[in-house]
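In the laboratory, one determines a bound structure by crystallizing the protein with its ligand and collecting diffraction data. In a computational setting the workflow is compressed into a single prediction: the sequence and the ligand go in, and a structural description comes out. We illustrate the idea with iron/sulfur cluster.
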Amino acid sequence: MQPDLTEKILELIRRTATNLPADVEERLRASVEKEAPGSAARGALETVLKNIELARAESTPICQDTGTPIFYVHYPEGWITRKLKEQIRAALAEATQCSYMRPNAVDAVYDKNSGNNLGGEDFPSVHFDEVEGETLTIELMLKGGGCENVGAQYSLPDNRLGAGRDLAGVRKVVLDAVQRAQGQGCAPGILGVAIGGDRGSSYYGSKEVLFDKLGTRNADPKLAALEERLTSEANTLGIGPMGFGGSTTVIDTKIKGMHRLPASFFVSVSYMCWAYRRRKMTVNGETVAYD
Ligand code: SF4
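The predicted complex, in structure-token form:
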């Protein structure tokens, strides 16, 4: 019989909301050294790091905006996804009661907050994918509203930016998105970029790629080179941590190449703020592990 994972998922939510992944924290720590002593940029990063430590020690949210919960569930044959979804929703409501999550689900038509992070079938966002083997994996990302607001989608060619339907055009529009975001996405950020797809799948692709660890490069050498180039060029724009200027605007870039219709060429940019909250749990028989 399928186990009830509600309490295990609650722990996944707690860890995601209160304890930033080690790879993100390491990047932020390394960034401090790149900013001038006494600068506003360095001060902002030091404050962010103190905040991260405090949240972990006290098991409180890393940021007051606990974001949109986005779950990806990779399940082996035989699991009932309807039950998993019910358990995810129950865990999220409990996490809200425990104050690991701020009530964030607002009915856009009636302007009413549900108070428990549940809204219709669309909040939280839950995606299922059947996989081979015996391991169930649940990934969770909490995507802040401020950084979501500065995400962007471009339809190439973009004559305003002189961006054609090639990787040179992709580079131009991604840097445009960073320039437009300024400090409003709570830089330093991480860029999730999807090239291709339709408008919907392209945005999903740009978020899915953010589940990968920092520093992992696309297997396609052309895209891997573009990831490196975009990160380094974004850091010459002078936006810096929280828009205070400086050299740390973006700490990594992830790109997903997708297929497109001949008539369309979308580039979607999901901007993730420094509060890059993403974690996963794996279930193998009785054993549950968190990463
Ligand atoms: S964008 Fe991120 S860091 Fe900024 S307020 Fe939102 S969740 Fe917090």
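The two ends are 26 Å apart (CA to CA). Keep in mind that any predicted model is a hypothesis to be tested, not a measurement.
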